[in-house]
Amino acid sequence: MGEFDLIRRFFQRPVRRAALGVGDDCALLAPGPGMQLAVSCDMLVQGRHFFPDVDPHLLGHKSLAVNLSDLAASGATPLAFTLALSLPLADEAWCAAFSEGMFALAAQHDCELIGGDTTAGPLNICITVLGEVPAGQALLRSGARAGDDIWVSGNLGDARLALDALLGRHPLPPALLTTARTRLEAPTPRVALGQALRGVATSALDVSDGLLGDLQHILDASGVGACIDTSLTTPLIAAYADMLGSEAIFDRDYLRQCTLAGGDDYELCFTAPPQARDAVLQAGAASATPVTRIGCIEAHAGLRLVDAAGEPVAAHFASFDHFAD
Ligand code: ADP
Ligand code: MG
């Protein structure tokens, strides 16, 4: 199977939204009237972002999911994406499963593959996603104000729990591993929530490298600080710990590490004024996405961690950084 057969068979699909899709030198696409294009790019590298033996169907899903998550964080509606693929060999079964996983998620979000590039080389997947957002209404990192509540969607920490189990760092009961593993390998981009938060949230981003490190980007961009209630950030992890009961194999610091700095969560972290609490809950309900209030924005710089009683929690949690020393 040559390069062009491979593209035709696995990656060329009819387009509706775009004026022109795969097959020409450029694809053609126009945002709706009064809309801005939202553009984001994420690369997944074997050995860095996924295990060499990962199920290609799940990998197809995740490669697009992490990109859609960026659109979600901006409050944008997905339109289209391009796929740059470096493949060690033209493995038909692998390409079929990968493209199926990718197109299944694309269909859920009405997001079309409109072009890309295919080359032989180490397995590497780079997707650029395009979305649209009413001009001036994109959610940014820079809008948080002192007094705003800080919220997160879904459950943080599951992906980290699964990753550590897969790396053999701790055992997990099979049922628990299955749940956590799905969150690691097939994350759900919070696209509907992001759109519902336009005009409600003052700032937003998606949590990909760990909550505290990512939240720091909002604080830096907005010139503010924050106080986080560490007891509020652990709904699912707490359920895990409860389930294990007295046989608990995790200590509290490890559970906090998962929720506060786990990485690969693809949940949204966002801020909104206290008057908007009902509106935030409505946005969560309308998008069938749980939302939890975990703290508040403060005027002075710095990130304080407290427990449920408001007592300081002394801890340093490093978020993921590809080039950390
Ligand atoms: P060019 O050499 O003009 O850049 P290519 O020969 O690389 O074009 O690709 C031919 C067509 O196939 C282009 O429309 C390109 O966008 C598309 N394409 C290539 N690889 C992929 C891929 N992995 N997924 C989707 N479209 C692809
Ligand atoms: Mg090319």
TrEMBL record:
Any idea which positions bind Mg(2+) 2?
Answer: 42, 70
Q: Could you tell me which residue ranges the PurM-like C-terminal domain spans? A: 191-306
Q: Which domain of life is it from?
A: Bacteria
Q: Which HAMAP family match?
A: TMP_kinase
> What does the record give as the reaction this protein catalyses?
thiamine phosphate + ATP = thiamine diphosphate + ADP
Stated EC number for the protein is 2.7.4.16
Provide this UniProt record's keywords sorted from A to Z: ATP-binding, Kinase, Magnesium, Metal-binding, Nucleotide-binding, Thiamine biosynthesis, Transferase
Q: Where is the PurM-like N-terminal domain?
A: 23-133
- Enzyme class, broadest EC rank: transferase
Instruction: From the UniProt record, give the pathway where this protein acts.
Output: Cofactor biosynthesis; thiamine diphosphate biosynthesis; thiamine diphosphate from thiamine phosphate: step 1/1
> Per UniProt, where does Mg(2+) 5 bind?
209
Q: What does this protein do?
A: Catalyzes the ATP-dependent phosphorylation of thiamine-monophosphate (TMP) to form thiamine-pyrophosphate (TPP), the active form of vitamin B1.
- GO annotation, biological process: thiamine biosynthetic process; thiamine diphosphate biosynthetic process
Q: Which organism is it from?
A: Comamonas terrigena
Task: Recall the GO molecular function terms of this protein's record.
Answer: ATP binding; magnesium ion binding; thiamine-phosphate kinase activity
The record ties this protein, via Gene3D superfamilies, to: PurM-like C-terminal domain, PurM-like, N-terminal domain
| CDD domains in UniProt | ThiL (cd02194)
This protein is called what?
A: Thiamine-monophosphate kinase
